[in-house]
Amino acid sequence: MKKNEIIVGVIMIVLGLIAPTALPSVWITVLCMAFYYAILTIGWNIIFGYTGLFSYGHAAFPAIGGYTSALLAQHIGLSPFLGLVAGALVAGFFGILIGMLILRVRGFYLCLVTWAFAEVVNVIITAEHQITGGTGGLLAPTFSSGPNAELFGYFMGLGLMMFAFLISILLYHSRWGLNLFAVRDDIDAAESMGIK
């Protein structure tokens, strides 16, 4: 890691730890949403920024993971922590499946296929309102209850965002990251070198 990346990471940690004591509780809720969007942005940066592949389907995977987690908690009483892991595994499975199906699709066609996938997920969530709650959504289980529940959610969101940031930085400096950049710079040359 470069020195400036370490400095940014330390500043994020310090500000993240100080924020709950210095800000009103309404800002804690806003920051929790910001952490969620930061995680999505980091993931999208890996897809578009590292590989140059434009995907419209990025929002479908958190939806799949979130609904998986909420439905498992609602119907079989799975704890939110295990639901989080199960949601990540199911979303990852769909990510790998879609990735394998669109392996040879490029450019405008990649945009169309990923957009269609996201739209199919959206239609299923909206149409199956008996299961998913439709446009109203589901009441997700909380990880903690009581007066510190919001603070727990804040620190969990901060930790997950920092984990995503760390993975992104490590990927950036890895051999696999170099392969992703090769795809971005010249996909044909990357394929001729055995990078798929």
Structure description:
The protein has 9 helices and no strands. It has 196 residues and is mainly α.
Number of strands: 0
Largest beta-sheet characterization: none
The amount of beta strand, in percent, is under 5%
Number of H/I helices: 9
Span of the ends, CA to CA:
26 Å
Radius of gyration using CA atoms only = 19 Å
The percent of residues in helical segments reads over 70%
Low-confidence stretches: none
Structural class: mainly alpha
Any idea what the shape is? flat
**What number is the mean pLDDT?**
86
Write the element-wise H/E pattern from the N-terminal end onward: HHHHHHHHH
Which short descriptors sum up this protein?
196 residues; mainly alpha; 9 helices; flat
How are the SSEs placed, and which strands pair?
Layout: H1 3-22, H2 25-51, H3 60-76, H4 80-101, H5 107-127, H6 129-132, H7 149-172, H8 175-185, H9 187-192
Summarize the structure in short.
The chain contains 9 helices and no strands. The chain is mainly α and 196 residues long.
